[in-house]
Write a structure and sequence with these properties.
With about 575 residues, this protein is an alpha+beta fold. It has three domains: about 1-300, no CATH class; about 330-375; about 450-570, 2-Layer Sandwich (Heat Shock Protein 90), CATH 3.30.565. The protein is about 55% helix and about 20% strand. The protein has 17 helices and 16 strands. The strands form four sheets. The chain has a five-stranded antiparallel β-sheet, with helices on one face. Helix 2 packs antiparallel against helix 9, helix 13 crosses helix 14 and helix 15 packs antiparallel against helix 17 (about 535-545). It is elongated, with a radius of gyration of 50 Å. The two termini are about 65 Å apart.
């Protein structure tokens, strides 16, 4: 007898090769996708970094322009005519009391009260970003200094200190003679620029530098702890008054602007910081990709292992058959998809073989079995009805009225099923359905409730037999939940105008809105194929043929999450089956 090859031979063939190939393909695709996303994220981040540096330069330039406009406005307010120039000279040349007398005298002569401390103080009210105002006149020692703490200002000796301030300087020109009389310095707060830079980007590592036309550092802002670039810039500016653009480009994204007024604006973003940010952003992707690879490998291995086990089941059964055990059958419940179909085909083949053997070697036994079945089939339905009626009467005699009712209901259902009539009245159809539900109620006491209602005018309405029972049966097969105690179904037949409406409602499990829409759509078609709803298809086609073209079946979800089925048609119009 031919024996089956060892199981190890099968495990080293196609399945393992497919498993390895599929695993390699899936892992490769995931890795390629992760690398592609990573590169795309990197280039997008670099692009955003370049855009951010340019936007920062434009923002700083605009801020300088705005501040420059403020400075010119303030300077013009202090020096735009000879009287104001004279007032400045008087302030620098006199004591404060003499200057106050001078201002009053000028007011009497010209009608304008020009008092420098008051004028300067008003500018702080107009512009909230001013830190200090300095006026230096060439013909006088010392200078005028006004600060946010001392807005009226005072005269100080020596040279003004401008360290660590963001200032703009302007020459003071006599409007009559065009002679340069001195210098005007306006120091602004850096905080508005710094706040704008902070809100401009999501990157860490942004640095911004502003130098005056004389190379003086007006702004040096950086978000990184490494100060090497900042030191390089400051050293280069002190030596050559030029920015080290080439050196900075190696490790930074940068944007540079030299304004027409001589300001040097430089903004940089560290490439290393961008790379760190990208890697930080991609950590979830990399972690998710790794987890996905592990899950896919596990599922692939599990799937192929399960498939291999199902193939082994088939091969083991075939090995037993080759050894002469023709009674062996493949367990179809242990196989799936095409292997299940293959198992069914093999089992069918084995059944046929066994049948052929039985036909040859067990003909006599088959003949005896056929004879016995023939005798059994001679029992007439009338005998069954009489027997059931005897059981019912015996139950009544024993006081078991509930059992008698069950036997009566079952007997009535049996008579109705064996009756060859094609049509019935609506009253009889609902009576048949009520007994059908009653049997379920007896089977599951205190779990099923039902209610049937019919208009008197519709009791004699003729319709095809078994028109409503399949719809109720559907509820007990698919919709009812026997673990609940509040299952309920109702049937109401009423006459609305000239139309008959039969409504079947339940509080069962219902069906999804998507599937309900598909079923309703197909019910409205002339040709319907409801493979998952044979009862609906049968009822719809039979009633449509009988009451066409007025018949309409509607199915919808109701407020208790169950289904409502409505059958409606014109009472007068019908066609014979």
């Amino acid at each position: 007898m031919r024996k089956r090859p060892p199981l190890a031979i099968y495990k080293k063939t196609l399945l393992n090769r497919l498993l390895k190939n599929y695993a390699l393909i899936l892992v490769s695709l995931i890795l390629v996708g992760m690398v592609s996303i990573g590169l795309n994220t990197y280039w997008q981040s670099m692009g955003r970094g370049e855009t951010t540096t340019q936007e920062a330069v434009d923002m700083i330039n605009q801020s300088i322009n705005d501040k420059n406009l403020q400075g010119k406005t303030i300077l013009n307010g202090l020096t735009d005519n000879q009287d104001k120039i004279n007032s400045l000279n008087s302030y620098m040349d006199s004591s404060i009391s003499d200057y106050l007398d001078y201002s009053y005298d000028q007011q009497l002569k010209t009608g304008n009260y020009l008092f420098l401390p008051s004028q300067v103080k008003n500018f702080y009210t107009m512009y909230d970003n001013i830190e200090s105002i300095i006026i230096v006149l060439n013909n006088y020692d010392g200078y005028y200094l006004s600060t946010a703490e001392n807005k009226s200002g005072k005269k100080d000796a020596g040279t003004p200190s401008l360290d660590n301030t963001f200032y703009l300087s302007y020459p003071i020109i006599n409007p009559v003679t065009s002679e340069v009389l001195g210098s005007f310095y306006l120091a602004f707060s850096k905080q508005d620029i710094i706040d704008s830079l902070i809100h401009l980007t999501t990157f860490n590592g942004l640095s911004a530098y502003v130098f005056s036309n004389t190379g003086y550092p007006l702004l040096a802002y950086t978000e990184i702890t490494d100060k090497s670039d900042q030191q390089l810039i400051q050293q280069q500016m002190k030596k050559t008054s030029a920015l080290p653009i080439q050196s900075l480009t190696e490790n930074n994204l940068l944007a540079h602007l030299e304004t027409p007024s001589g300001f040097n604006i430089l903004v940089t973003i560290s490439k290393e910081t961008i790379i760190k940010t990208v890697l930080l952003d991609l950590r979830i992707l990399m972690l998710g990709g790794g987890v996905l690879i592990l899950i896919l490998l596990y599922l692939l291995y599990h799937t192929f292992t399960k498939y291999s086990q199902q193939v082994d089941i088939i091969m083991d059964s075939m090995a037993l058959v080759t050894q002469g055990d023709v009674n062996t059958r493949i367990d179809e419940q242990a196989t799936q998809f095409e292997l299940k179909e293959l198992s069914k085909g093999i089992n069918t083949m084995l059944d046929n073989i066994e049948q052929y053997i039985s036909d040859i070697y067990k003909l006599e036994i088959k003949q005896q079995d056929a004879h016995m079945r023939a005798l059994q089939s001679q029992i007439s339905p009338h005998f069954l009805y009489n027997t059931l009626e005897y059981i019912r009467m015996y139950a009544l005699s024993e006081g078991s009225e509930e059992l008698a009712d069950v036997v009566y209901a079952f007997s009535t259902l049996l008579r109705n099923n064996t009756d060859q009539a094609k049509t019935t009245t609506l009253e009889k159809e609902l009576s048949f359905c009520e007994k059908y539900v009653y049997l379920y109620q007896m089977r599951y006491p205190d779990r099923v409730a039902y209610h049937f209602e019919i208009d008197d005018a519709l009791k004699t309405l003729v319709l095809p037999k078994f028109s409503i029972q399949p719809l109720i049966e559907n509820y007990f097969v698919h919709g009812i939940d026997f673990s609940r105690n509040d299952n309920a179904i109702s049937v109401k037949a009423q006459l609305i105008g000239a139309r008959v409406e039969i409504m079947i409602r339940d509080n069962g499990k219902g069906i999804s809105a998507q599937k309900l829409a598909v079923i309703q759509s197909k019910l409205n078609q002339q040709e319907i194929e409801l493979h998952d709803s044979i009862g609906l298809q049968n009822v719809n086609e039979r009633l449509r043929a009988y009451f066409s073209p007025t018949f309409l079946m509607q199915i919808k979800s109701n407020e208790v999450n169950g289904l409502t089925i409505i059958l409606s048609f014109e009472k007068e119009q019908k066609n014979e089956l």
